[in-house]
Amino acid sequence: MPLAKDIIKSIRKVVGKQKHHLHEPLFFGNEIKYLKKTITTNLVSSVGPFVKKFEDQIMKFTKSKYTISIVNGTEALHLSLVACGVKNNDEVLVPTITFVGTANAIVYSGAIPHFIDSETETLGIDPLKLEKYLKKITIKKGKFYFNKKTKRKIRAIIPVHVFGNICQIDSILKIAKKYNLLVIEDAAEALGSFFKNKHAGTFGLVGCFSFNGNKIMTTGGGGAIITNNKLLAKKIKHLSTTAKINHRWEYIHDAVGYNFRMPNLNAALGSAQIENLKKFLKSKRKLFIRYCKEFLKVNDVRLIMNPEFSKSNNWLNTIFIKNSSIKKRNKVLNLAQKNQIFLRPVWKPLHTLKHLNKMPRMNLDAAIKIYNSCINLPSSASYFDIRK
Ligand SMILES: Cc1ncc(COP(=O)(O)O)c(C=O)c1O
User: Fold this and answer.
1) Å from CA of 96 to ligand 1 middle
2) Does the first or last residue of the chain, that is N or C, have fewer Cβ atoms within 10 Å of its Cβ?
């Protein structure tokens, strides 16, 4: 038990003795004022000024040319896949270490998730392992690469910035270019994360965010797609609003569209939240530095760090327990829970879930190691007074 005790002691030293959840939202800005405005103007649904305002704020913050706000991050990924041209039966490369929504979005689009391994520094896709694997399993026909075994086209890749940490995006983009893969970035957890001063989500053809209640800022439920491609932005916006043609009274729809546009009510909340995003980021940075200092003193534990050139939003701080096992990890989770500290492990690798365990995959040893070894720490922005 000494390791578990040491970990709990260190957490308590950083965040204090009270009850701790993993991540809680923080509302101290214009939230009530903006929400009230949606009600007093009767504009609570998908038409209303806050939708445009919120999109402009995201564009300004991420320096992307176009933003379309969506009902949630999962549907942002789903719609991105469809709009980018991923077709039925195409294979889409996706890490097994991600939230289930990433893989579900692929299935919704009619494509097949093909699971790839992650590395233990950023917890993102392992580019070295991926490149070797693709060389072995693919055959080129025309301008596309096909899986020799399944005969299916490998059409896209979804790099995920896990817990806000930028994955090895430079190397992944090179592989994507070589294998003619569309890049759909899952930046659901990475609003406020940068690589070489470029915002997460701006590296791929499109980038997707989530504004679920547990994220760095929230719209209640919500998401957004960012892109620099004008035609694609137009297509995404059209498809997200039931593919309705503009007309003063007729209901004319020119494709199977989706009802995925974010309501004005949610955008109003988001608009107020994003006004305080820089304060949230500052607070989370401070917390991360405190955890770094504290966990340096704990044997056999390291904190997941920002690699060179990248700046994480520190959405969730994560420890990696050396030479761990499920049993060892669970002892920590158990003791923490008894102490009212609600820690969480990393997601169960997706290829082990019942509805996804028949999907193609590479060797996923590092993912299993990550699952056995990583634990997320309480990471809310509310630990420091940032209301001024
Ligand atoms: C990595 C990742 N991808 C996708 C999603 C899906 O976002 P949402 O919950 O808004 O559908 C989430 C969020 O929960 C996530 O963490």
Assistant:
1) 14
2) C
